[in-house]
Amino acid sequence: MTAALVTGVTGFTGGHLARHLVHRGITVRGLVRPRSLGRPEVATLREAGIDIASGDLTDAAAVAAACEGVDVVYHIAATYREAGQPDSAYRAINVQGVEHVIDGARAGGARRVVHCSTGGVHGHVANPPANEDAPFNPGDVYQDTKLEGEQLARAAGQAGGLEVVIARPIGIYGPGDLRFLKMFRGISRRRFPVLGAGEVFYHLTYIDDLCEGFRLCGEVPAAAGGTYILGGPRYTTLNTLVDLIAAELKVKPLPVHLPVWPFWLAGAACEAICVPLRVQPPLYRRRVDFYTKSRAFDITRARTELGFAPAVDLPEGIRRTIAWYRAQGLL
């Protein structure tokens, strides 16, 4: 029986992946930071049959211990965007943490590491759709360090002794996700004006499809050394995405389109004031980028080489997500 380690197991993607692997008959261990061991999610993971190992990505010895005896390491954990967090914190997790995972996997005898990067390393897609060979254009320290971590992992695989597969997920959503809640809630309350023309592309990937893509990255022999964009069946314009969500919510979207530049300037001002104080800005430029940067991707390589076949199209995925939000009292 295959054994796997999943890092970031208390997060949305890592938790779903761990349970997905268990359902496929894989023995799963999850790496959890010591300060998170008392969280309710950890008890739920244990109930699902997931073994819990205590350790932080900055602790090379703890990571190596967690890697002992597993065949595949799914490295999902990362530090995301957080107000006031110094660049060194991103580098400690998103770069040095990758090095600890690679070293631990090699020492523990793992066959393969699936490293979770992000489609964000491509930044704005000027010539959609982008494939894995599209130019890199990271737009902030998070994307910069994710690209650096990806490159470190790839180089380790090329050095031999360990198979490394790079996965770049796109626009992850579904039951359990809270990142898109503000958008869904705004549309439901008819308080979600679109900035700009709304004709930029957006590409969403339902969590169950993504987890199966990760599993294929871990198990398909020919994937060794490969890089794969894992995205949903299709991308669409922001206007169409808003219309689809509104239709499932049974509301009319706002017909209002507002200019981008006042919000970009306001975001810059909020960041200048709030970030040094380590206060989350009420508005920041990255949020404005949502309305101005296209994200549209070609998943042909994953379809062809992995057999990746995302099955949950936007209307169904949106419907399931809304149902979960409502069940949690969030909408």
TrEMBL record:
It comes from the Bacteria. Signal peptide: none annotated. Residues 4-228 form the NAD-dependent epimerase/dehydratase domain. PANTHER family: BIFUNCTIONAL POLYMYXIN RESISTANCE PROTEIN ARNA (PTHR43245). This is Cholesterol dehydrogenase. It comes from Luteitalea pratensis. The lineage of its organism: Bacteria, Pseudomonadati, Acidobacteriota, Vicinamibacteria, Vicinamibacterales.
